[in-house]
Specification:
single chain, 225 residues, mainly alpha, two-stranded antiparallel ribbon
Length: 225
């Protein structure tokens, strides 16, 4: 089975899904900003921006679309690693059980490929912190802590895991003031997980680049001589 081929089929689908869907929400936001029909502002003296609720809804829809695509991307990476594991009969979840349990599936597979195949992911072309940030963001998206909003947020425990490398946080959120709490830096307001077109496409490129490199490393080991 050509696992990399199917991985790229999925990443291609993610690109198409996002680009084909986000335009509707971006167009609605644009129309509201410029006052274009059907969002021409009516006469009002209350001082509240017209169509504020419609703007918020479109902005939230754009965010949730990014969340869905990021989650699909993380699942695609996990499927690639699991299928490669099965194809090679590595039995990673058993031989590296403690890593999977304590450090998550990404680091579990990383340990397994290092110990069993002598493939060190650090020698690859990708920023492993970025891949960890992808998985962490996906976990927060899939397991929200609040019912009050559809926007996913980072949790306090994420702060130490990523050492403030919040690739998917909105820039305006990261500019918020910080305070010191229990001897470590924490935020006053938790940053939103904001998946823009730029960060999503960067994440897709990183996953493709990583899997292409790993696939070549695996093939080199499987080639006689």
């Amino acid at each position: 089975m050509d696992v990399l081929y199917f991985l790229k089929q999925r990443t291609g689908f993610i690109r198409t899904l996002y680009e084909g869907s986000v335009v509707a929400f971006e167009d609605r936001i644009r129309r509201i900003k410029v006052g274009e029909e059907p969002f021409a502002p009516p006469y009002s003296e209350d001082g509240e921006p017209p169509f504020l609720l419609e703007w918020i809804e479109a902005d939230e829809c754009r965010d949730v679309l990014g969340h869905a695509c990021l989650s699909l991307l993380a699942a695609s990476l996990q499927c690639y690693l699991r299928t490669s594991d099965e194809r090679l009969s590595l039995n990673c979840r058993e031989c590296c059980k403690s890593d999977f349990k304590q450090r998550g599936w990404l680091n579990g597979y990383r340990t397994c490929f290092r110990d069993v195949l002598d493939i060190d992911w650090k020698s690859g072309p990708c920023d492993l912190t970025f891949l960890e940030a992808l998985v962490l963001a996906r976990n927060q998206i899939q397991h929200p802590e609040s019912i009050h909003t559809v926007r996913a947020k980072y949790s306090r425990r994420d702060f130490t895991k990523l050492e403030r490398k919040f690739f998917f946080a909105g820039s305006e959120d990261m500019d918020l003031p910080y305070n010191v709490d229990v001897g470590e830096f924490t935020w006053i307001l938790a940053p939103n997980i904001q998946v823009t077109r730029e960060t999503l496409m960067q994440a897709v490129d990183e996953v493709e680049q990583f899997c292409t490199w790993l696939d070549a490393e695996i093939d080199a080991q499987q080639t006689p001589g």
